[in-house]
Structures are given as C-alpha cells and as structure tokens.
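Q: I'm teaching a short session on how sequence maps to structure, and I want students to see two examples side by side rather than one. Could you give me a first protein with its sequence written out and its structure tokens following it? Keep the formatting plain so it prints cleanly on a handout.
A: Of course. Example one:
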Amino acid sequence: MFARWWRAAARTEPQQERDGGVAMLAALLIIMIFGALSVLMLGVVLSQVTPTQFSEKNTRTIYAAEAGVEVTLSRIRTATGAPDFTGKIYGDPRKLPCTLTGVVDTTGSGTTYTVNVQYFADDPAGQTASWRTGHAFACSASNGTGTVLPSYAYITSRGQAVSSARVAASEADRGISMIYQFETTTKNVKGGRIYSWNDTVGGTQLCLRADSATAGSSVSYRPQATCGTSALEDLELWVYDTDYSIKLASSTLTATTLCLTTEGTAIKLRSCATPNYTQQWSWHQSGNATWVGQTAAIADSGQCLGSGRTTGTPLDGDKLQIGTCANQAAWGSFSPDPAVGPGAASANTHQIVNYLEFGRCFDVTDTDVNKAFMISYPCKQDPPAAAQLYWNHKWFYNEPLVGTVAAPQLIYVYNASGVQYCLKTPTTQTNPNLLGVGIGWYPTLTSSCNISDTSQQWTRSMATGSKTTSWTFRDSSGRCIGAAGDKYKSNWTALVVSACDGSTAQKWNAPADNVEAEVGNYLEETG
C-alpha cells in the first residue's frame, strides 16, 4: 500500500515542476509586456508635451491678439473732441492711436499684445502690403493723423506669450488683422466767429459777441483774448446763410432764430423773417472784406457793418453799427472764420466752394490776373441769387454728372474787361515772397488759353467711388488743387496743387454724405 502511494507521488513531482516553470514564464512575459507598454505610453506622453505646450501658447496668443483689437477699437471710438455748440461730439483725428502695446490678465503674466494701425481714405480690403504702405496717412503718437480725416483703419494685432523649454520664443505667436470703417459725416456744422480785419501776423483782433441771446440785443466788439471759449459760444458763433442773413448760430436751435437787423444806424438781433432786406447782407464785391446792407429793391445800400468809427481799431465794447464802408481796415472790415459759412455760394453761382474752409471760395487774388498764386477767400455774395457777383469769383468749366468725370477741359474766368484767363498748373515750385506765402506749387492764370497745352488741362470729378479723387480738380499730372498753402495777409489760404490725398482741403462743391461705422474683414496674419 505504501509502495503504491510513493510511486504515485514520485510520478506527480515532475508535473508540478513543469507547471511552476510555465507560471514563471507567463509572469515574466506579462512583466515584459507591461514594461513595453509603459515605455510606449511614456513615449506617447512625452511626445505630446511639446504639442500641448505649443497649443496652449497658441491659444493664449490668439486671445491676446483679439484683446489688442478690442482695446484699439475702444481707443479709436473714444478719440473725440469737445462738444460743439449744438452739443454734438465728433471724432478728433489728432487723438487717433498709431501703435499700442498691453498686457493681458495681470502684470507679469507674460501674455501681451502689440498693435499697429494704418489709416486710409479708401478701403484697404484686398490690397497688398505695398499698397497699404504707399496709401496710408502719416500718423504720429503726439498728433494722430493731424487734420486728415480717415475713412478706414487697418488694425494689425499680434499676441505674445511666455515660451516653455520645448517651444521656441518665436513659435506659436499669432496675429489677426481687421478693418474698421469710421462712422463719418461730411455735413459741415455752420457756426464760426467773426473777427475784425487784421493783415499783420500776430496782430490784435476783436470778435463780435452778442450782448445776450434775446431779441433786441446789441452786438459788441470784444478783445480776441476773451474770445473762443466754449462758455461764450452761444453768443459768439455766427452763420452766414443761403438767404444772405447773418444769424446767431445758437438761436437756430431754438424756436426763434435771431438775425442781424438794421434799425436806423444801429444793429440789433431780431427774429429772422424772409424776405427782409434789413436782414440781408452782401459780402463786398471789390474785396474790401465788408458786409454791405441792402435797400428795399435788394441792391447794395452803400452802407456797411462796422464799429461806427472811420479810422483806427475798434475798442472793447464798441457796438456793431451800419455806416461808412471800410476797405480792408480794422474799424469796418472783417475776417470771418470759414465755419461762418458760404452764404448762397455754390456751383449754381459759378463759384467753387472749398469743403474744408467751407465759407471760402476759389479766388483770383486781389482781382489781379498776374498774381503768382490764387487764394481761398470768403465767398463773395450779391443778393438776390448772385446777380452782380464780381468776376474774380465766377469760374467756368463743365460740371459732369455724379459718378462721371469731365476731362480734359479748361477752367477760366473773364476779367472786368471781358478777357478770358485760364487756370494753369505749375511746372516748378515758386516762392512769391508775399506776406508769408512760401515755396509751393501755385496755380496761376494765363490769357493764352489753349486746350492743347497740358498745363491747362483739368479733370473735374464728382463722386467717383474713391475718396481720393471724388469732388476734385486734377491737373494733367494727376495732382489735386487744395486750400493747403500758407496764409496770405495772415487770413487767406493760398491754393496749391499736390498729390491727391482724399482730404477735405482738396474737395470742391462737395455735398454732405453719411457713412455708418462697420467692423469686418477679420483675417489671421501669417509670418
């Protein structure tokens, strides 16, 4: 019995040894598999560290770029000036940003943005970088675009974030660009100050100020040093309107508009009535810088607005009266702001009204056809309907239909003797050296009118779809005439030809238009 058990046990021992070996082998195999999988998973994890860090930085920089755009739009929209006398607030191009930098989240986060802004007259959408460089307005940190009013802003914003050891500093930074179209209106708000005549640089002038904004009030001369504050705008701003009346600007916003009215030799503010010859004024035809009263037959009365003096300079408190007409003299002549308005001047009266200086017109300087430059001068007026408008403000040319051009053509006047003189573009810069007029490209007149002469060929454009060329007069070289030169007699802007830039100084007889603000053309910047 024992022997049989021993033999059975002896027979089972080798089998147990074989089972243990298999188990050991399986365990080692499992360890090897899991080890390999661990190594594989470690490789996968390690391989994803760089893309993850890249993606994380990539996300932060695009959000930083977007933050830069939002900050820039806020700066543009808040680049405003003080309210005008109507309470309306307009943008101030001198406050527009050129570049911006900032931090996203908190200081020290390392996430920042850098923004560059370019300003244009025409839509930069779809244009090349070289086009944008060549057409962008000059912009400075201290003065924005100056007096140039842009229609579009091209904003480029780039985000930056701190890099990890696996992502280079130059990698994963993103940028975006977009275009902002300004809400604009080209409607000129009439209302400017009327100063006494002075043709000396830095000379003393006085402004006209109503004693009160009520009917029956007188108007007084006040020292220039006390003029020009916003607190006095309601009493100092005047409008020379299309019905030839001179109105207190602030009263045009009330139920009773007040006009300068003749009462004997006195001038009073009275409710405006049309027609009323005692409230109508012509801007003197011979260039005396005076406003002439009218008779019941609507003809010049021979008496003008003035201080009541016949020599010297008005004194503080002198009352505006009607009496002897002056000839460019402080006691009875005036230098109105352009914002006082053009009266009835327009293409219908053969006058060319500037849109920046919208109370001033293309003028043959001093009625002298041999003058070395033309000027922008207060638009001459003669009620009714410019019947006897003086020749040096009457220009003849073909006014094309809206959306078209008329070219080439002559632009000309007829002098007092009926001789035709044609406008001629300059071929060289000149220096007339007359009372501050410096070196410039000044158009002049010639009696040798010849349409074959390229210097006499002009293109008149209406609304062309381009801000740069609409409502312009361009010479054969493509340059525009603008009221952008130095001052003549310290008052009147000399006219020059220069590269067309879309500025209002180069617009003539242009109507008002309104454009709503718009944001669009978002693109991701590469490179």
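Q: Perfect. Now a second example for contrast.
A: Example two:
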Amino acid sequence: MLQRPFALMLAALLAASCATSPTALPSRTSTLALSLADLYPADRQLQALSAGTQATVTVTGPGLDTPLSVTTAIDGSSALATLTGIPVGPNRVIELETRDASGAVIPGGRFRTTATLQEGANTAQISPDTTPRGDVFAKLLADGSELARTLDAGRVQTLVEAIQRTQRVEHVALVDGEAIARALIATGGNFDALAAGETAFVQKAARLTVTVTGLPSNLAADVWVDDPVSPVQTGLKNGTIHLAPIKPGTWRLHARAGSLRLAPVTVTPGPDAKATLDFSGSHEALADMPQPRGAGASGVLPLGGSEKLVVAGGLITTGPLQLFNRAQATDSVVAFDGTHWTTLAEPMPTAVSHAAYTTRGNSLWVLGGVDANGNEADAVQVFDGETWTTVAASLPVPIVLGNAAAVGDTIVMIPGFKSVTSDVNGNLYFTMDGDLYTMDATAPGTWTPRGALTTARMGAAVAVMNEKVYVISGLGAAAVGTKPVYAVEVFDPKTGRVSAIAPIPTARMSASAWVANGKLYVAGGIDSLGKSMSNFEAYDPLTDRWEILPPLRMPRAHAATGLVNQKRVLAGGHDSLFYFGDLQPVAGAEALTP
C-alpha cells in the first residue's frame, strides 16, 4: 500500500520527447518541480493505488499543439517529480494518472493541477484539492475557449473552495470542474455572475449496496470502489454493507481478504445500485453423491479401466448421534468417475464410519471405526476394486477418528480417540491417543510401536509427502471437553523421528488433506464450535509458510477426496462434530482450484 507520495523520474524522458520534434514547440522552455506531498490522502484511495507501479504525466495548455506525455516507473525516494523541457506559457494543465501492473489507468488515481510556467525553474503541487481547478482548465481547452489562456487560475481555486465550504461538500472531488467551466464560458469569464451556492456545481454523491459472501470465518475483507471519493471499508465479514459517498460514474469495485483478492467488478453506483462479492472462488460444482454421506473411507482406485474415487461406508442417516449410541454406518460403496456416481455391487464386510483409511497401490485399507451398532470396530478391511477381504492384523488399540497412511509397504496408524468420561454436571472429559504404530503391509499381522506425537489428537488430517507423514491439526484434549489444536507434526517412518512445522492458520478436525505440486493442501473440517468449515489452505515446505486459498463452495467435514480426471474432487461430508447432536450428511461434490 502506498503510504507516502512517490517521485516520478521524468526529466530525461520528457526532455527526449521534446527534442524529437523541435519545430513543433516554442524555443523557450521551463523546468517544473511537481510536489506530490498531498497526492494520496491516508483515509481515501491508498487501497486503489496499491497495485500502481507506473504513472503517466501529461502536460497540455494553450499553444501546445501536441500534449507532452510520458509513462515511467514510480520511485519512492522523493516527494517531487521534476519535469524539464516544458514550453513556457499560461495555465498549463498537468495531469497524473496512476496505472496498475497491467498498464490500465486506476480511476481513483487521476489528479490534475495547473501552473503558469516561466522560463527557468517553476514549482507546483498536485493533489485532490487541485484537481477540480485542473478539470476546469481541461474542459476550457477541450472546448477551444480563449478562457483557457486568460482566466485567473487563482480565482478558479478560490471559487472551488467557496463551493466546497458553502455547500458542505463531502469530498472536493464532488465539485464539478466541468460544470464550472461551462458556466464561465457562458458568462465570458465573469466570476461575479457565479454563486458558490449553485447546486449545479456539485455532483450528488452516489451509493452502492454490497453483499459479501463465501468469506472464510478466519478472514476479514477490505472493500473499496476505485473512485477518488469513497473510503475503504475494512474488517468486513459476510453480509451486506453500504458504500457512500461515491463519486458518480462507472468505477471498479475491489475486495481482498488476507491473500485472497477478487477480480474487480465494474459498477455504476446509484440510489438502488447493488453488487455481490463472492470469495468462494472458482471451484467447480460436480454431480451429487447418490445419497448424503459423511465420514466414509475414500481413495482413488482403478475400476473398469479408469481411475475412480471410491467411498466406502460412512454415515448416511440424518438425525441425533450422541457418542456412538445410534447406528448409522452403512456398508455400501460408491464410485465417481468425475461425471457420474455408481453404487458398487460389493459391500463392505463390516459397515463402519469414522475409520482410519489409506490407499496403498491399488487397494483401499480401512482400519477400525464405528460399526452399525455403535461399537468400536477392530477389523482391518481391504478393497482391491473388486473384492473386500478382512486382513489378519488385529489392531493394537481401537481406532476411532484416527489416521492411517501408506509410505511404500509401511502402513502408519495413529489411534486418535481413546476414551471419554463425564462428571455429574454432564461435562465430557476426553483422552486422546497420539501413539504411532507401523505394520509391514506385505506381511500383515504385527503392529510395531514407534513412539508418539508430541500433541495427541483425534480427527487429524494426514497426507504423505517425501515419504513422511504429515499430521495436521485435529481435536486435542482440554481441561473440560476438547479444542482443535494448531500443531502440525511430521513423522518419518524410516527414522521414527517426529518434528514440528509451522502451525496451520485455522485449527480444525476432520479436514481433508492431500499433496500436489510440492505443496500440502487442507480443506474443510470442524471448528472449535463444532460446526463444519469451508476454509482451504496450503503449506509450502520450501518456505515453511501457509497460504489461505479461496474457500470451498460449501462447508464440509469428514469429506471424501481424490484426484479424478485431473480434478481434485471433494465430496460429501457432514456438518458438525459427531457427539454434538444432529448430524446432517451432505451429498454435494466439487472440484477445487488449484
């Protein structure tokens, strides 16, 4: 953001432009030191100019057949722009236009001033306060009026200030320089015939109603119109706001929240003008699942000659669930080819939800979970795309809201939930199991203890990158109840070492995680209030930093995910923590960008 005015290194460029056509310009030239000290008021359009990397300065005036114009990089070393080689003469109009990175003019970054230049050194100031005066002379020049040469610029400025003061104008940019110029032309330049209270000299401020949607819960937005009048609105959440005053015209509406920045929206403010800013990003809606389903096991397997996202088990019933005491798990298995969902003929041997799961090669491994009777399951079920088998690999401890990951032939398992008790007041006290176990998948049967996470948690998200298991956030034990933890730990099965990386910006449990393009992505989950989230974030191991990405189309937790037809699919899920009451499984699916 531009906190101070910036110098324009124009001298050599303007001198060169004058030298290219010496016969078209008078021989007497001047130098102008243009002060930018009041160019960008701190409470107005700094936000619109933050992308400005260049500026164009144009000089016009009576007797100048060809305007002098140059575009140059903005330099922050000085508060003056020095222009040389400008032909001397009265009422030169100096216009400055700030340009964004693409070279497009930023409407709120246009300013004007005037100066009568004598041979040698001259000074002038350009700012919002001088712009209406510059607009008057620009209009006189455009209409070919002789007043452009003879009119007293000082009296024009005095009139502008009187209009602003008399009519209590909210911003000087609402003083209409073109209207003043037309009135001066009509009166032959008679200032005494013009009244400071003439309402035609002031533009009526416009307004715009803006609806903000799709904003992640952990972010606040800045919203602004790139006119020269309206102030930036900061700290906004989802909902409706009213922007005013705004200079009449067609402008661009901007918005950003953290690292999210929306493409500008063209708006024409007015009494009933409305606009919507949707931070939900460009994620693509896909076909719904055959039925709402959450907390199933998922993975991408080759089926029928192509890779499909397989979702096995999970919860399909809407209703209250109080800590495993209601049977809701299904044994059905569905598959998605990127366009259509199908139900597979081969059900799971044991219906489960909230199991740990991972894919190894062309097989989906499902460990433990909660069965259809609400009991903790101890089976290890494996699906090869055609047949389910129950592996003779008894679990060392129950696994509910735990995690599994395959690193080569090694299956890594983290139990997650351990136990819960309650006191006489009904407060729940949870114990988490952060122990680490591994098993050789080529000879299943024995689990080997491998230490423990520093922070025990259940419902973490896991992903494998560079043969290491990343364990992200999850629900940790609190003094009473639970709370999501921010901790992200990395387990190396080869060495048994556990290390920590930068904590995730938004703590959550039961999120979906995967690795792509050398980054770790985490989407959705359940927040500290027990409600599903739409937050989407990415971790770069090269910088050890997290980036906030456009949120999901809908909040979801315990969702299925996989890469199908080069699309990262996120499907199903449910909307709250399983022991907090009513569950609402969802059927919607989307393809994420990136």
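Q: What should students look for in example two?
A: Point them to this: The chain has three domains: 7-201, 206-278, 284-592. Also worth mentioning: The longest helix spans residues 153-166.
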